[in-house]
Amino acid sequence: MSFAAPTDPLTGMQAARFGLYLHFPYCLAKCPYCDFAVAVARQVPEERYANAVLAELDARLSADPALRTKPLESLFLGGGTPSLWHPRYVAQVLEGIAARMSLAPGLEVSLEGNPERADAERFAGYRAAGINRLSLGVQSFQPQTLKALGRAHDAAMVEGAVAAARKADFPVVALDFIYGVHGQTRAQVKADALRAVALQPEHLSTYALTVEREVLAEDTPLSKQLARGELALPEDDDVVAMARTVRDVYGAHGLARYEVSNHARPGFSSRHNALYWTGGEYLALGVGATGMLLSPQAHRYVNLRSPEAYLRAVEEGRVPEASREELGPEELFAERLSMGLRLVSGVDWEAVCERYGQPVEPRRAEVERLVAHGFATRNGPRLALTERGADVHSAICARLL
């Protein structure tokens, strides 16, 4: 089962135009590379948190009643570790959202989970609650890499979790991996990729490890080790070679690359993630969640990152925002162009310029140079990066912006 979504004309991607991201911040341990808003807790306030996110939703819908009738095309429960949340509370939240908002037919409902056995025991309950896309944070099958990343599972647990997901009848099982880890080799990355495709997932996401403090939301144990010179990451050329190995293995087994770090079987690209890459709107609920709405004026907001501060604000009837940023044409243009160039289908760069009032002609010569030097191709009106161009995506965007 793939999920219905409109096609974005500027990229050709099927992508939700309006989605909802719900952040569940609680974890049993914090991974040393994680900069997300998470809280380590042995006692998770499951019912209190379910009530709180629905109270936040009520507050946001009261502030902008038009959101009630806008068709919701994707819903994503991320974390943290959402698979720590008992299925009864996940069902409560999903039912609460359905009672308050308009759900589009074929809604994609994703939940992130860990491969640990205790999490897998809940999979049938999540499926019964309405989850139809399960994303498992595998990261690696290699004991050495898993230890470096602070992960508690092993390869056998991953295989058991995938089997449990199939038994629970999830239409889509997605697996997430990390490469470029300290101590990791190209041979290990290839072994991970081969073992991943053998499990026959519908979707694979594979990201390079990000450790540098300047691109993180907050310091992490690994970023501090890197700053102190205690951590040696693979050389850049090795990381690029790892990425190419992953692409080759996945492609040879029927998972087409549709975004810099994402591969899927035909029809199974993530409609929710594509929303971010194609300039869609997303309401966000929960601790540390980030939302972006285009009305009444374009803005991005970030919720409080402390669970206790978030819960206190919501229970006192306040919208739990830590910050809000108005987005003008230049900010929207930069995001739309840079995100569109992450997609294999590319983006109609002239149409993006025109939509946000940015000049085309000063950029045309740079586009011609990118094509002439093999960093990009033209796909009709769309500019698409080649594999060589995708490896230097950030540098290319800096020149075009």
From TrEMBL:
One Pfam family, please name it: Radical_SAM
Q: Which family does it belong to?
A: Belongs to the anaerobic coproporphyrinogen-III oxidase family. HemW subfamily.
KW Disulfide bond (keyword) present: no
Where this protein primarily resides, as one coarse class? Answer: cytoplasm
Q: Name one GO biological process term.
A: porphyrin-containing compound biosynthetic process
- GO molecular function of the protein, one example? coproporphyrinogen oxidase activity
Which SMART domains is this protein grouped with?
A: Elp3
Say yes or no: keyword 4Fe-4S present: yes
Subcellular location per UniProt equals: Cytoplasm
| Record organism | Corallococcus terminator
Known Gene3D superfamilies for this protein? Answer: Aldolase class I (3.20.20.70)
What's the gene? hemW
Q: Which keywords does this chain's UniProt record carry?
A: 4Fe-4S, Chaperone, Cytoplasm, Heme, Iron, Iron-sulfur, Metal-binding, S-adenosyl-L-methionine
Please state every residue range assigned to the domain named Radical SAM core.
Answer: 12-256
Question: What cofactor does this chain's UniProt record say it requires?
Answer: [4Fe-4S] cluster
The transmembrane residues are: none
Record protein name field:
Heme chaperone HemW
Query: What Gene Ontology cellular component terms go with this record?
Result: cytoplasm
What is known about what this protein does? Probably acts as a heme chaperone, transferring heme to an unknown acceptor. Binds one molecule of heme per monomer, possibly covalently. Binds 1 [4Fe-4S] cluster. The cluster is coordinated with 3 cysteines and an exchangeable S-adenosyl-L-methionine.
